[in-house]
């Protein structure tokens, strides 16, 4: 009696926050099944026009007692998405994994830079994109900067969903000490506590935790995770941190989760 179920929880963001790591780690739980690809149903008009049955068809097969989770980080920053998800399921649980906003922006830049380099294309330095040359202020038109203004995006979601339907995951802590973060998510999803330290082992070569599903099956995240970031001018880092600071304070206030970001 395997069925394809619509997700009861979605990792809606944030890009470069650790969405893939979170999805793979939650998949350690016997009651969780994951959609392996980013489906981009709610943020892509063409996909959305295909309708909910198309979306369901992209879901893995599962037992009725299991919950399906998908992740598409573009959902968080795309304007139409909250209303579309609300129309599908107004009581869905929404997971947002965040990192310190300046680090996240640099990580975002690094991924794009790598893609350009693979195609032998040149790309501006991070400093040139993040700071407006005319005003010398932070360039909010630059997508990597805009994505890191978490509170701006969250406010749009809160027009549809109460704050209790969101759970904020600390993406920096998920890297260094994943278990407590995963236990908080288990609780949020009303799942029995099943993920243990046995399931997570530190791989010194990779500098990351890897996953142990059972005696025979282990899994580490793809090699593209944990890219080395380019050196960024410290004055630009400071300028960005100052810029994000008031937005971060508001984010803590709304979500009730505080981070020791600068």
Automatic annotation (TrEMBL):
It is a single-pass type II membrane protein. It is found in: Golgi apparatus membrane. GO terms for cellular component: Golgi membrane. One of its GO terms (molecular function) is [heparan sulfate]-glucosamine 3-sulfotransferase activity. InterPro entries: NST/OST (IPR037359), P-loop_NTPase (IPR027417), Sulfotransferase_dom (IPR000863). Its main location: Golgi. Its EC number is 2.8.2.-. Gene3D superfamilies: P-loop containing nucleotide triphosphate hydrolases (3.40.50.300). This is Sulfotransferase. It comes from Seriola lalandi dorsalis.
């Amino acid at each position: 009696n395997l069925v394809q179920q619509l997700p009861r929880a979605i990792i809606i963001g944030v890009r470069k926050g650790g969405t893939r790591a979170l999805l793979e780690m939650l998949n350690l739980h016997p009651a969780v099944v994951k959609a392996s690809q980013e489906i981009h149903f709610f943020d892509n008009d063409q996909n959305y026009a295909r309708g909910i049955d198309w979306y369901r068809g992209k879901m893995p097969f599962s037992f009725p007692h299991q919950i399906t989770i998908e992740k598409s980080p573009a959902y968080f920053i795309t304007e139409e998405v909250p209303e579309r998800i609300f129309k599908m399921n107004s009581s869905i649980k929404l997971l947002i994994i965040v990192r310190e906003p300046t680090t996240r922006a640099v990580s975002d830049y690094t991924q794009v830079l790598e893609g350009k380099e693979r195609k032998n294309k040149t790309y501006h330095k991070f400093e040139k994109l993040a700071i407006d040359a005319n005003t010398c202020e932070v360039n909010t038109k630059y997508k990597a900067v805009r994505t890191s203004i978490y509170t701006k995006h969250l406010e749009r979601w809160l027009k549809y969903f109460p704050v209790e339907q969101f759970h904020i995951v600390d993406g920096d802590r998920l890297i260094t000490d994943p278990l407590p973060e995963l236990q908080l998510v288990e609780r949020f999803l009303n799942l029995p506590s099943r993920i243990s330290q046995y399931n997570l082992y530190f791989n010194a070569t990779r500098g990351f935790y890897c996953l142990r599903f059972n005696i025979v099956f282990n899994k580490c995240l793809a090699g593209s995770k944990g890219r080395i970031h380019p050196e960024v001018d410290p004055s630009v880092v400071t300028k960005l941190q100052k810029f994000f600071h008031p937005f971060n304070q508001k984010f803590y206030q709304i979500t009730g989760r505080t981070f020791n970001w600068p």
